[in-house]
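Backbone-to-sequence.
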């Protein structure tokens, strides 16, 4: 993946790494040439042009895929970029109250499939990411609201970022929320204080599904003026 973002390295904090690649960099404000819609004015932006698929195209091309080329593995550098993208997501207090398990073993993917009521594509995809909330980490800072809400949100937002990165990396995914938490926990070797919230099959698609319908904006958006 070719990315160009200017910046300086982030100061490492105790227990945290500055990250490798471009997510670990502090962005600087740049003056960029006039883009469309600005009437010819230069604007200040936190990014330089990036050689990647346009964000809106990425969003438009994300569809749940439930058939995969099971013999084509996810390249390690793409997997790394996807995981870095997940960790670039916002989290309450920047605590990142989640864990991500990367499950590639055949037997383990079959166990995840079984934990998810036999949804076959989970074992067919070469990789399955398991996003889990760590409520205790958020609870230390935010109490009950951290445990019951923020940790779940942290894990969910990270998963959503990952799902878009999968598309940008030329692959496909499906989000799976219907599963037995205890059975998933057993596969990924986590204790009861960790709560799996999403499985995500990842791989090269063997189908191109039709876009799914959405409610009109007027049904979901309220303008308060
Ligand atoms: C919280 C959540 C749980 C989901 N659980 C499942 C699931 O268990 N199995 C499945 O095949 N798809 C699951 N999906 C995928 C949705 O069915 C899918 O996103 C939706 O139909 C819209 O289609 P699209 O992703 O192609 O836009 C889930 C999605 C979300 C966000």
């Amino acid at each position: 993946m070719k990315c160009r973002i200017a910046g300086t390295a982030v100061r490492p904090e105790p227990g945290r790494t500055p990250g490798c690649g471009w997510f670990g960099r502090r962005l600087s404000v740049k003056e960029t040439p006039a883009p469309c819609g600005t009437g010819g004015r230069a604007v200040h932006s936190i990014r330089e042009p990036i050689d990647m698929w346009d964000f809106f195209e990425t969003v438009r091309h994300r569809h749940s895929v439930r058939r995969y080329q099971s013999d084509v593995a996810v390249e390690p550098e793409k997997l790394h970029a996807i995981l870095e993208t997940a960790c670039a997501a916002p989290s309450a207090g920047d605590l990142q109250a989640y864990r991500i398990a990367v499950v590639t073993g055949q037997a383990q993917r079959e166990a995840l499939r079984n934990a998810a009521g036999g949804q076959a594509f989970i074992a067919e995809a070469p990789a399955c990411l398991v996003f889990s909330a760590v409520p205790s980490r958020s609870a230390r800072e935010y109490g009950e609201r951290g445990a019951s809400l923020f940790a779940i949100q942290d894990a969910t937002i990270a998963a959503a970022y990952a799902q878009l990165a999968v598309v940008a990396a030329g692959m496909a995914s499906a989000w799976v929320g219907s599963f037995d938490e205890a059975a998933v926990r057993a596969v990924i070797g986590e204790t009861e204080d960790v709560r799996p919230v999403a499985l995500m099959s990842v791989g090269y698609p063997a189908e191109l599904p039709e876009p799914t319908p959405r409610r009109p904006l007027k049904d979901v958006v309220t303008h308060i003026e």
